[in-house]
């Protein structure tokens, strides 16, 4: 289990506790409770992300004395901490296959959604455009996916099936949209007015003050009358992240190919070729105040 999942579990426990205690406080005879927010992390128990080989070190152990956390603190078997640890340990056999190493990354690539031209977003969009060209059997001129669909960083070093599944947990499906150049420009103009712009491939864009200053696709200015082949996801076709690519398109082709599976194909192909996953900023999107 990675850090993101531990964080989510911690916050889930806080929310459930808050709802229960809040309901008690509203009763006539219930206790008066004052709440404060506490950041959740593993510093009390020392819990760490779990791999296939480090369950005792990551989650602790049980003995006749009770539950011994990785930090060395002992808890009784019926304590909330021990019960949570036991639940996590119980599911590890079912999760073992997710710990399989499927590739290696040259570095850790973050997903900071309020910044354009990020290495991870560039990589995902480039992989998506290349896959779309092969899948739909027509060259894809442009690709766009949303930063919000990339939920965790790409780790440095070994990359597991769980890493990619955690990065792309949503059912976002591969789509092909054909847009006239004038409508592709409208899409870029809309993106220019946002903070993140979204992850794109096949273009070079410059904006200033929330306005589109210049844009090229395939190294050439956008031809308003030309039809452009675009790889995207169904989430962005009709309102996702306030985009309506479907309404701008001349035609749309839907599939049942998950973005997660596109990335799994890429990671495994890199590993088979003996290559590390590498990503970089390249100036494809420049946003000025």
Concise description?
Helices cover 35% and strands 24% of the residues. It has helices at 3-26, 55-59, 80-95, 119-136, 161-167, 181-192, 245-248, 259-272, and strands spanning 61-63, 66-68, 74-75, 101-105, 142-145, 157-160, 173-180, 199-201, 203-208, 211-217, 220-221, 227-233, 249-258, 285-288. The strands form four sheets. The chain has a five-stranded mixed sheet with strand order 8-5-12-7-13. The protein has a four-stranded mixed sheet with strand order 11-10-9-14, with helices on one face. Strands 1-2-3 form a three-stranded antiparallel sheet.
**In angstroms, what separates the terminal alpha carbons?**
40 Å
Characterize the biggest β-sheet: 5 strands, mixed
Mean pLDDT: 87
Contiguous helical run count: 8
Radius of gyration from the alpha-carbon trace, in angstroms? 23 Å
> Which class best fits the helix and strand makeup?
alpha+beta
* CATH homology group of the largest domain: 5'-Nucleotidase, C-terminal domain
Q: Which blocks of ≥5 consecutive residues have pLDDT under 50? A: 6-21
> How would you spell out the order of helices and strands?
HHEEEHEHEEHEHEEEEEHEHE
Number of strands: 14
- Under the CATH scheme, which architecture of the largest domain would be assigned? Alpha-Beta Complex
Overall geometry:
elongated
Question: What is the number of independent domains?
Answer: 2
Strand order of the largest sheet: 8-5-12-7-13
Helix fraction, binned, reads: 25-40%
In CATH, what is the class of the largest domain? Alpha Beta
